[in-house]
Fold this protein.
Amino acid sequence: MAKVAVSQTRSETARAGFVYRQDVLVRLQRTGGKLAREEDREYTVTPKPNGVEREMVHFSGKYAVGGKEVAINDPGEHYKDLDVDADIAKSLADDFGNDTKSRDGVNQDLFPLTTEKQKVYRFKLEGRETWHDHEVYRITFEPKPDQLQLSGDSDVTPWAGEVLVDKADLTPVLITTHLAKGVPLLVKTLLGTNIQQLGFKVTYEKFDDNLWFPVNYSGELKLRALFLYARTISLGLTNSGFQKADVKSTIVFQDQVAGK
């Protein structure tokens, strides 16, 4: 795992010189699977000295009310004075894939494979297999027991999950995570708030030596708040059209992935 951490750092450094397209989709569904709201954004992502910067170049969205779907023109646009769906969708879309501490926007707290994050987790080799033509190690991880006890601390991330590590490059090709510990009972009781099935997944592809990019990043959760509000929330992100950053470069994006 120490070698995996090194490869993560090396690959992140290589990603720093690329401009690319990022598509972010946020969908909120009511109980029974009916659409409540959907927002779809397209960004151009450019490297900065200590991270990346996103510029939104296209937006589309809609909300459903009274059995009808109504188009919206701006992120977070309300259809009435109090619109919880609008506020939640905007907040999630603003943040998802926009971790300013990373070179690709992926939140490193959700996928604890850096040297520093690995210190509070334990890992287990579950086996070797083939995944999409890659020979990989399948490794599970979870917080050390003492870290779970401290999970009320904002500095502790109670995630557990599985990672497939490319055998040749010792770099992740697929990481999935879920909450290792549920929402505290006190929060459920006092606020009527509960989060279920919270989990995230990120898939990497190799583009060159020491250059692996996260191409798909997704998550889903079920949220019940204030005893009345219930939504299933899906988050999806696709990165594509990678171009070496250069003043003479022309940015040409790939077609948006079908069905995103």
Summary: The longest strand covers residues 229-244. Confidence is low (pLDDT under 50) at residues 150-155, 183-192, 247-260.
